[in-house]
């Protein structure tokens, strides 16, 4: 519902200002009148917090906020007071403004889930759905605790993944810079030394190729190549944001050697954990499937889950379409089938997520351990080739002397 700011007077004639949520101006005025507040001016308000402006909030801070609210409610603190305390304890300005807006809406009579719905892009669809289920089912404290635990677990998983891949990425970047620097700045110093061999046509092919590459990169064509690479990079980045580009990147991500199984394992673990957590907290299975589909972060897996959702709505099982898609590991599909038969799907899904994360971490550790020496070997081979290309003419000149 839209928000309306008002200027009004109470029975004592004191002027009041504030904001109220209503379907239209008439309903806002009627609501104020029912509170013995007589509106003089009611206009639609521009929202005080724009979810498009607050694009990201650190997951660790959201986990702390959800956990604090759960603890306060569990201790008997009223909801409005609990939200106010969490707002005072929050140091992140974006999250603080969101909580402030949620507090204002709840104060106006809006449910907590509806107040959070507006900030779904920031807080997450799963958090909103679980809070809604907890509010309706009478287990809001437990739902908030689960949201906090899940948010913290996913944030830890993301940080560990980025940390594991940081060293190979830095190594690749530094290696590229070193090689280009050697070719552009070091190799030209040997050009005059090898000029006599070049005039005689006795310069080794490898050295000739190295000098030609250095001249090319130092000349105007090298500058044009740099511009072309930058433009190509921006073009590829822009294309990867299109629908076709996203689908291509998601398919390639799953097919990459070494790291492909890692991406698949993380996506499947995320899907199982989100779906299991939602089902455990009373969210209907169709809604849970829609939310967990987006949590995979992969369109290929999302399409397979969407197909499974259609089958479930038709009264069929979840395991069947997942097996037919060929995208999910067979052990995961079989465990889901067992969970459906035992009517224990939510616990089985959480168990699958725990197991998949452990196995994925082993795969990631192995992949990183293999990538690091492989990159060192490639870097050493390139630098060794440069050294050999520079030493061959020196040896030839020494033999001549």
Question: What gross morphology would you assign?
Answer: elongated
What is the CATH topology of the largest domain? Answer: Receptor-associated Protein
Helix coverage percent: over 70%
Known CATH architecture of the largest domain: Up-down Bundle
**CATH class division of the largest domain:** Mainly Alpha
Question: SSE order in H/E notation?
Answer: EEHEHHHHHHHHHHHHHHHHH
Radius of gyration of CA atoms, rounded to a whole number: 31 Å
Secondary structure class reads mainly alpha
What is the count of helical runs?
Answer: 18
How many structural domains are formed by the residues? Answer: 3
CATH superfamily of the largest domain: Type II secretion system (T2SS), domain F
Cα-to-Cα separation, first versus last residue: 91 Å
Strand content: 5-15%
Number of strands: 3
Describe the fold and architecture.
It is built from 18 helices and three strands. A hairpin with a 5-residue loop joins β1 (3-9) and β2 (15-21). α8 runs parallel beside α18 (345-400). The model is unreliable at 46-52 (pLDDT under 50). It has a three-stranded antiparallel beta sheet with strand order 2-1-3, covered by helices on one side. The chain has three domains: 3-44; 59-149, Type II secretion system (T2SS), domain F (Receptor-associated Protein), CATH 1.20.81; 150-401, Type II secretion system (T2SS), domain F (Receptor-associated Protein), CATH 1.20.81. The protein is mostly helical.
């Amino acid at each position: 519902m839209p928000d309306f700011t008002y200027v009004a007077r109470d029975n004592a004639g004191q002027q009041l200002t504030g904001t109220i949520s209503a379907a239209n101006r008439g309903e806002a005025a009627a609501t104020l009148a029912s509170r013995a507040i007589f509106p003089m001016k009611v206009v639609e308000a521009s929202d005080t917090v724009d979810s498009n402006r607050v694009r990201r909030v650190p997951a660790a801070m959201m986990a702390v906020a959800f956990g604090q609210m759960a603890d306060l409610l569990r201790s008997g603190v009223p909801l409005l007071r609990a939200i106010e305390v969490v707002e005072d304890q929050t140091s992140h300005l974006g999250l603080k403004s969101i909580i402030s807006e949620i507090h204002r809406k709840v104060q106006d009579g809006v449910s907590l889930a509806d107040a959070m719905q507006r900030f779904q892009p920031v807080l997450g669809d799963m958090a909103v759905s679980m809070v809604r289920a907890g509010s309706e089912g009478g287990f809001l404290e437990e739902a908030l605790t689960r949201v906090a635990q899940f948010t913290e677990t996913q944030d830890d998983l993301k940080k560990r993944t980025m940390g594991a891949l940081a060293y190979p990425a830095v190594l690749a970047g530094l290696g590229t810079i070193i090689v280009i620097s050697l070719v552009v700045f070091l190799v030209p110093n040997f050009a005059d030394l090898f000029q006599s061999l070049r005039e005689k046509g006795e310069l080794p092919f490898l050295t000739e190729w190295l000098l030609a590459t250095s001249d090319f990169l130092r000349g105007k064509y090298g500058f044009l190549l740099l511009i072309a690479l930058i433009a190509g990079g921006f073009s590829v980045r822009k294309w990867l944001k299109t629908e076709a580009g996203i689908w291509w990147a998601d398919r390639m991500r799953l097919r990459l050697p070494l790291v492909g199984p890692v991406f698949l394992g993380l996506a499947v673990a995320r899907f199982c954990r989100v779906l299991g957590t939602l089902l455990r907290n009373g969210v209907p299975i169709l809604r849970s499937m829609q939310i967990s589909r987006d949590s995979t972060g992969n369109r290929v897996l999302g399409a397979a889950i969407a197909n499974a959702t259609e089958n479930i709505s038709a009264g069929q099982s979840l395991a069947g379409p997942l097996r037919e898609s060929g995208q999910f590991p067979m052990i995961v599909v079989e465990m889901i089938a067992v969970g459906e038969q035992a009517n224990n799907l939510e616990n089985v899904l959480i168990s699958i997520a725990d197991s998949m994360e452990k196995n994925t971490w082993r795969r990631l550790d192995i992949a990183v351990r293999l990538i690091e020496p492989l990159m060192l070997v490639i870097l050493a081979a390139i630098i060794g080739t440069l050294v050999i290309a520079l030493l061959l003419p020196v040896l030839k000149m020494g033999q001549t002397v």
